[in-house]
Amino acid sequence: MIASTQSAAVARMLPLWRFAVVSHLTIQASDGDQRAPEAVRRTRPHWTEGADHDRGLETMTVTDLSSRSVPELVEQFRILALAKNEALESDQDARYKRLYWKLNAVQQELRSRAGDQRRALAELYDHPNPQVRLDAAMATLVVLPDRARAAPRMIIDRDEFPQAADAGFTLDDLDEGRFVPE
């Protein structure tokens, strides 16, 4: 199996509504091939230059993350998820993808902290924005599986589209073993 935690190539192949789950997918090629192309093996995002031209709040670098506290990372995650929702609603695909990788970097930084601090994102399960709840749930499926599954279920029950579609597919994929969180 090819784990696609940092795969820009795989992300570009998936429709936008499935893009939110790319960092958690485990992919098996249809012909059984288990070799990963170079883009899949890449381990660092390419946005570390610093400034983002569209919003100051979205600006961060990898070194910024390592110097931040867990509460600051949770706040950065919230800000990025809100910006990602804004990009989704206004059909700004390039911005959406940049924000996806930034959210992934925050998640990976929390994961690298002692005791896997992704569980700190659980405070976002009750956020009023469905994209924030969905992103937090996706990031915590490994560390808080039962609680993390409840957030997408709530999005579905409230018919909060387009996130409800992604949440439904995610839960189906989890149930059927096609989606294995890392």
Question: What is the CATH superfamily classification?
Answer: Phosphatidylinositol 3-kinase, accessory domain (PIK)
- Gap from first CA to last CA: 13 Å
Residues in helices, as a percent range: 40-55%
- Low-pLDDT segments: 1-54
Q: What is the top-level CATH class? A: Mainly Alpha
The number of helical segments is 8
Q: What multimeric state do the chains show?
A: single chain
CATH architecture: Alpha Horseshoe
Largest beta sheet: strand ordering: 1-2
Name the helix and strand elements from N-terminus to C-terminus, one letter apiece. Answer: EHEHHHHHHH
Please state the CA-atom Rg, rounded to the nearest Å: 15 Å
The counted number of beta strands is: 2
Strand content: under 5%
User: How is the CATH topology named?
Assistant: Serine Threonine Protein Phosphatase 5, Tetratricopeptide repeat
| Silhouette | globular
Task: Find the structural class using helix and strand composition.
Answer: mainly alpha
Number of domains: 1
What composes the largest sheet?
Answer: 2 strands, antiparallel
Could you report the average pLDDT, rounded to the nearest whole number? 76
